[in-house]
User: Fold this.
Amino acid sequence: MKITRACDYALKVLVYIASENNKNKIFMRNELSKLCDIPDSFLGKILQALARENILVSERGKKGGFKLQKKPEDISFYDVIKAVEGDITINDCLVDKNFCNSSYGCRIQSILEKVRQNLISDLKKYSLEDIIS
Amino acid sequence: MKITRACDYALKVLVYIASENNKNKIFMRNELSKLCDIPDSFLGKILQALARENILVSERGKKGGFKLQKKPEDISFYDVIKAVEGDITINDCLVDKNFCNSSYGCRIQSILEKVRQNLISDLKKYSLEDIIS
DNA sequence: ATGCTTTAAGACTATTTTAGTCTTAAAAAG
DNA sequence: CTTTTTAAGACTAAAATAGTCTTAAAGCAT
Assistant:
């Protein structure tokens, strides 16, 4: 029932970038790695995922690096988690309908599905802006 | 961001027992294993945990087995998850305060802590009774 | 008492996921 | 065309999850 460390790192690094966003500066992975104390190569994969999901812009070559693709208020906690570890599930059943097959089982699922929807809408409420403002 | 399979099993087996609760019957592990299609030894550990946390009563020896220790409406989804996998955490930081150390970091934590509290209170809303009624 | 049946506890193993590294390629700038 | 940067994905290490097995202990029946 936990987010992965990669998600934690993602939030940390995004908050850092967002906090300097006014200058529209572009940050190199290596630089972010040191500033945020995140292993360099691992951070590479995280930044790639964030870029693929249109949270960051990445630019290669000299003068390359990463910057936000959206305003901090348009990047929610949910967006970050989803980008890094895929959509939120509460249990396996929600994904694999064959995992359980009893009639009560489905009622367990429908409750866990409600819990999941609430969790998602809760995570959508908070954005990077809430952290840096 | 998922509950473990052991939790899924726990909900399944508890719902089964609760659904027959009126008869105050006592179920053997072996019996439950077959009825709920859960590996026998693994189910043993799950039932033990539920008994330790006062959700089930266990009795040894001939005529022994497991039954509910409380009314189905007094066993919430949260109780079950907590019994099986310990208290809910959203990320490591909530447990290990040294994991992050930036000033913004703490603000990330305080938001994740809110999300966590909401999740817990949501899981407390639903009980076994909601499934079997 | 002494078997027989049941759970308790915990060591052990296997599998899967998470965390992290490394290597090669591709793009951009000078 | 060389340097600097990210992209992609294979690879490895470590940790958590899932599950088994063995030995003990408790309760019932004869």
